[in-house]
Amino acid sequence: MHLDRHAHRLMLGLYILCSILICAQLIYAFVGLNASSLWIDELWTGWLIKPAYIPSILARSVTDVHPPVYYLFLHFWTLLFGTTAAVMRAFSAVCAVLAVVALIALTPRWIGLAGRLFAGAIAVTSPQWLDQSQNARMYALGFLLGLWLALVALHALSAVRSGREVRRSTFAALAVSAFLFSFCHFYMFVAALGVLGFLAAASPRWPDRLAFAGIGAVLFVCMLAFIVVLLEHTEVPIQDTWFSNSPSAIIDMTVRGITRQVRLLPLAVLSVLMVAATILPRLRRPAAGMDSAVPMPSALLMMLFVIAFVIVAGIASSLGIAPNYSDRNVAVAAPFAWLGVAILVDYAVRALPRWAAAALLALLAAAIALHALEQWHRLRAARTEHRAASNYIRALPQCAGKPIPVTLKTDQPGAAAAQGFTRYRFAYYLPGYPLAGVGYRSGRLSMADGTKRLLSRREAGLDECPVLAMIADTSGFDIEGFASSLRRALDGRPHGAPARPIAIVPFPHYDVYGNRLTEAWVLRRP
Fold first, then answer.
1. Cα separation, 147 vs 137, whole angstroms
2. C-beta separation of 342 from 107 below 8 A
3. What is the mean pLDDT of residues 381-400?
4. What is the pTM of this model?
5. What is the pLDDT of residues 223-268, one digit of tens each?
6. pLDDT exceeds 50 at position 381
7. 3-state secondary structure of 2
């Protein structure tokens, strides 16, 4: 009894610690929204939502490789608050925060306080949540919609496991949430199919089973129709991407996808919790107000099934269709991972003696707190530095209002949408400067005669502006090869002949995890 009283006090202190940590991290999601420039994917987002009319946004969205729901949500957000970098990222911060609030506030019917608080603490200290909370892309909205889908699925599972008929309102909510979630990202579509498939398999009643399968079939047909339209209009090279299908890359991305949702140390303690709860079962009854119709193993199995389904289907699509598998795509299953953690912790706390549960939760809290402390000294959302390179150019008075050559990672100028986006992404931080494109790929240059004459005059000193090219989004870009090719083209020298040097001005930055990167340059004459 004395030991239980101390354990009760310890658990109360751990609950307070988790609550403070969660509140601090939720506030932290809004810190430094403008800490860095928009990176290329965020700039693409800004270009897609720029038109004033929804049909124009939909027309642009099919030139992408992602469904349009996120772009439409963000469009309405920017109509209210503007299109600055901080405003676009704030939408993701709001979605990420609401996802965690919903995880804690909307699940007491199935999950006890310990499970909800510890799952929330793990969520807000995970690298994926931190990163996507300030990324103007669809993943944070996916966290919110995915969690809502999982909660509706738990309602349905509660009826299925208790033998009750699933209500029509539940089916309707399931269909709407699955549709919205799916049309944010193709991997979210896979996760939605996993949820519907699990519910269909778990249901003992054929009418319910057919209803779950029917929702999945309609969703599949709608997505298939969208993919057909997208393949006709997309201007993104589907086969030529940075994704890799090598075994080492797939393994690395899988491990990163999991550990960026739940870090290794908390994951290890959670495994000990599960083992201890299995070996030392003393299962208590659910607390008052909790739904006992959903056995913990069934709910946990559904969450694990969705995560595994996303990973397996993602690898299969990457190998069979086009390379697309990454840790960022695995992150769409994060809401199901958080709920799985909540269920696991709740089950362990109710299954273990109070002193054992308190001791293991103390270890888990220490692991979470140690990881959280690592995040606070790091910069937020610092990505490719378009802004720093543009500021450098704007600081050169002799370049004011003059054409600035910008690089295209292609041999040819490209399609209309690609060209429109290229002008947008460079002009975003260089307003008022005419832009001239210089294509480069596989050691070959392509540029208009007027651009070549401009660069020749500039290199010869006849134009006071020294800037020869601005380069951003340099992933996989041969900067030295480009500089040499540009010099030879301006000199008129044959390939292989020595060329005079070009000054390369790099713009290093730091990402949210403290890594020093260099992903923007300005080329200028020495």
1. 17
2. yes
3. 81
4. 0.89
5. 999 999 998 888 777 766 778 889 999 999 999 888 888 887 888 8
6. no
7. helix
Instruction: Measure the CA–CA gap between 293 and 159, rounded to whole angstroms.
Output: 8
Mean pLDDT to the nearest integer, 115-132: 92
pLDDT of residue 3: 66
Share of the chain above pLDDT 90, in %: 42
* Closest C-alpha among 289, 340, 341 to residue 110: 289
The tokens for 313 are 């289907």
Q: What is the DSSP letter of 18?
A: H
Whole-angstrom Cα distance, residue 146 to residue 286?
A: 26
Strand 404-408 relative to strand 435-441, pairing = parallel
Contact 120, 334 (CB under 8 A): no
> DSSP 3-state assignment of 492?
coil
Angle value at C-alpha 472, between 469 and 474, nearest 5 degrees: 110
Rounded (10°) CA dihedral 132, 136, 142, 147: 60
Element (H, E) at 110: none
For 212, counting Cβ atoms within 10 Å of its Cβ (0-12 exposed, 13-18 middle, 19+ buried), the class is buried
H/E/C letters for each residue in 474-487?
A: CCCCCHHHHHHHHH
The whole-chain average pLDDT of the chain stands at 85
| Residue type for position 448 | A
